[in-house]
Amino acid sequence: MCVSWSILYLDGSLTPQWPEFRGQRQKAYSETVVGRPVHESMEYTGRSVLPWFGAFRPDQISVQDCKAYIADRKQTGIQDGTIWTQLGKLRTCLNWAEKTGLIERAPYIERPSKPAPKERYLTREEIAQILAVDCAPHIKLAIRLMLSTAARVTAVLELTWDRVNFERDQINLRTGEGQRKGRAIVPMTQSLRAALMEARRAALSNYVVEWAGGPVKSIKKGFKAAAVDAGLSDASPHVLRHTAAVHMAEAGIPMDEIAQYLGHSDSRITASTYARYSPEHLRKAASALEFG
């Protein structure tokens, strides 16, 4: 059986033109990921992917179609990393459709090469610079949370006070939906504890990072302004998570512990990115090459 890509995807904006598809359930894949971060990101990706692939049956998608999509995206200034992610989500949906029997076989989805991981992270001097910036309290608190918990910005903005345990000095970055991507239960540092206690006294809502008595959807503009004021115009919120992991690795923290902080289910994923920052990385191997 073949079904239109738009049936598998999220927004259902393209209605299948073939009579045999009419009345079939739209947003099939979407219903399996409701409440997870991927739900929102897939819907956003659909705005780019659907105009190209929405009218195809899966068996009609060819490598040339994928290459044409890649060329078009690049021409509009989209980076390889974004294109790689977009086509990866297309592939995820189609593979899911094959596994669940909606289609007989998922087509091969050609993607550009995955870019190398970004190396940018903040030194201790740069961390001091951004923490010293005079910015809105919720921006400063979000920055400190990301640096001290290695959390993604989404996890920080979704953090509520009921998951901040001052008695145990722990922060639960998970939600009631279970362990979501990159979420863990981590201890508080003393400096973060002091910042959180001050924020708790002034809190007007159950959200740790709040503005005008309510949750904050994005700190993109506020963070950018703070980074520019600190002389770190190339920094982004994700750089703070990377920074936390690098500094743990440089301190010789074992990869499995860093993996727990980052919410990685497999420490090999952590090691593939951060092992090279450890002072012990390949040290034993290097000792075998001491010939002088």
From TrEMBL:
Gene3D superfamilies: 1.10.150.130, Intergrase catalytic core. It comes from the Bacteria. Keywords: DNA integration, DNA recombination, DNA-binding. InterPro entries: DNA_brk_join_enz, Integrase-like_cat_sf, Integrase_catalytic, Integrase_recombinase_N, Phage_Integrase. SUPFAM superfamilies: DNA breaking-rejoining enzymes (SSF56349). Pfam families: Phage_integrase. Residues 117-287 form the Tyr recombinase domain. Belongs to the 'phage' integrase family. This is Site-specific integrase. It comes from Thalassovita aquimarina.
